[in-house]
Design brief:
The protein is α+β, with helices and mostly antiparallel strands. Helices cover 18% and strands 31% of the residues. A six-stranded mixed sheet has the order 4-3-2-1-6-5, with no helix packed on it. It has helices at 9-12, 80-85, 97-106; strands spanning 16-19, 24-33, 40-47, 56-61, 66-68, 73-76. It has three helices and six strands; from the N terminus they run H-E-E-E-E-E-E-H-H.
């Protein structure tokens, strides 16, 4: 186990995500990184499905995930209802500040760009 606080995005892809109660809820498919600040903005997570088939992908604000070294994964307090009730994605969602504000308000976290 590494003691470094840095991690490669390649190592984050596929990392499991657990709810506060310990139940597995999904895994990280990929990250969305702000090109100007270098901050991770979203983890696009895969929920449901079997062996990647039928899996739904939803962006979750990065600061809703907290790394737990004992689980070797991330823990979050998001619920299935929150994911299902999140603002609907559209083509270009990642370049739409209004959509991003709605997403951060929905998950009750500060925006990453301030």
């Amino acid at each position: 186990m590494s003691t470094s606080t840095l991690v490669s995005s390649a190592d984050v892809t596929g990392t499991e995500v657990y709810g506060r109660g310990g139940a597995h809820i999904g895994s990280i498919d990929h990250l969305m990184i702000d090109k100007q600040s270098g901050k991770v903005a979203y983890a696009v997570m895969g929920f449901g499905g079997f062996l990647g088939l039928g899996e739904d992908h939803h962006p979750v604000p990065w600061n809703k995930l907290h790394y737990d070294p004992e689980k070797n994964g991330f823990v979050t307090d998001i619920t299935e209802e929150e994911v299902k009730g999140a603002p609907a994605r559209h083509d270009g969602w990642y370049a739409d500040r209004d959509w991003e504000r709605q997403m951060h308000d929905h998950y009750r976290v500060p925006v990453y760009w301030l």
